[in-house]
Structure formats: structure tokens, C-alpha cells
Write a structure and sequence with these properties.
Helix content is about 25%, strand content about 25%. It has helices at about 1-15, 20-30, 130-140, 145-150, 165-175; strands spanning about 35-45, 45, 55-60, 65-70, 80, 85-95, 95-105, 115-120. It is flat, with a radius of gyration of 27 Å.
């Protein structure tokens, strides 16, 4: 039961890009996860735009003839702006979900027989992500309630009738009292006073 709840929360929270989440995720997976596989993710490199990947800088004279070569000053002769790289990831099973945990990066093609895939792992929020992240922080981060309460993002949401804004708007009113948005007086701007 506990496994299915925590793993569900972790799966949905994992779609977020919140930096504070990662150390907690690592702790949870170290405790409950089971390593099942290793995979390698290939990230394509980007060639140096200055030398178009040749690594050379050619000097031309006034007539357009090449008279000297040097290493490209932009990439020091490597030809790469970003070298192609291979990220090594542990596949960790927790509940019915599997997570990818990076542990190394190499710049040479792996010689071992490992499962390889190209490109990035998708991190798109699901509709449960914010809720799951909130609960994960609430359970695992000491002092989270303080951080959450003081969060600047708890500003007034104009779509107050949407349930997802209720907590944020309640906090806003509790914090600012009569100065909170719904009670604030609209200031009228007299257009004659404007300097333009
Ligand atoms: Zn270059």
C-alpha cells in the first residue's frame, strides 16, 4: 500500500523540473528502489559554427588565397561546440514505475553491449504533478510548510472560482488582510496628469 502510494507520487512529481525535488527523489529511490538495468542515452554533439567542425582556422590573403592554417580559436581545434556524449543511467524499479537515474557521462561510444537510446527523457507535467510534488515535499522536506507559506508565487489568482486557486487565494487574503486584492481600492488614473 505504502509502496503504491509513494511510487505513484514519485512518478508524477518526477515530471516537474523543480531542483529541490531531485535530492529527495534520490533518497527515496535509494531506500525503496531496485536496480534492474543500465541504459545509455546518446546526446548528439554540436559542431563548432566557426570552423564548421573542421577544427581549422584558415588565413586568406587579399586575393582570397589560403596562406596559413591554425587551430580554430573557438573550439581549440576540436571541431566541437558541444561534444557528443553518452549518459549512463540506472533503471530503478519502484512499485510499478521505472525511473532513470544518471550516474556517469562519457565522451566515447560504449564498447559494452548496453541498451542505447537517443535524445532526452520527456519531462512534461501531468495533471497530478503539482499535487504529487506538494505531498512529496510535505512528507520528505523538513520546514517545507514555512517555505511554501512564504512562497512569493502565492499571489492572487484572478480565476478565483477554480478549485486549484482556492488555497493560493486563501493564503493571499490571510497574509494581506484588507490590503489583499479583492478588497483593494482601484486607483483611477487621470489621463490629464500623464506626461505624454
Ligand atoms: Zn572550431
Amino acid at each position: 500500500m505504502k509502496t503504491s502510494i509513494i511510487s505513484w507520487l514519485l512518478f508524477h512529481a518526477n515530471k516537474s523540473k523543480d531542483k529541490k525535488f531531485y535530492p529527495i527523489k534520490n533518497r527515496i529511490l535509494e531506500k525503496y528502489g531496485r536496480k534492474t538495468d543500465t541504459v545509455v542515452q546518446f546526446i548528439e554533439g554540436k559542431k563548432c559554427f566557426n570552423c564548421r567542425g573542421t577544427g581549422n582556422h584558415t588565413y586568406y590573403d587579399w586575393n582570397g588565397f589560403a596562406y596559413d592554417h591554425d587551430f580554430c580559436w573557438n573550439c581549440n581545434g576540436s571541431g566541437w561546440y558541444k561534444r557528443p556524449r553518452w549518459n549512463w543511467l540506472d533503471v530503478v524499479q519502484f512499485g510499478k514505475y521505472s525511473f532513470h537515474q544518471p550516474y556517469a557521462t562519457t565522451y566515447e561510444s560504449p564498447t559494452e553491449n548496453v541498451h542505447q537510446f537517443e535524445g532526452y527523457v520527456e519531462h512534461t507535467n501531468t495533471k497530478y504533478t503539482e499535487f504529487a510534488l506538494f505531498l512529496i515535499f510535505l512528507i520528505y522536506e523538513r520546514g517545507f510548510i514555512n517555505r511554501w507559506w512564504n512562497n512569493e508565487r502565492h499571489g492572487w489568482r484572478s480565476c478565483w472560482w477554480l478549485p486549484r486557486n482556492w488555497i493560493k487565494n486563501t493564503i493571499h487574503i490571510l497574509k494581506h488582510g484588507r490590503k489583499s486584492y479583492p478588497f483593494r481600492k482601484r486607483v483611477k488614473i487621470n489621463t490629464d496628469d500623464l506626461p505624454f
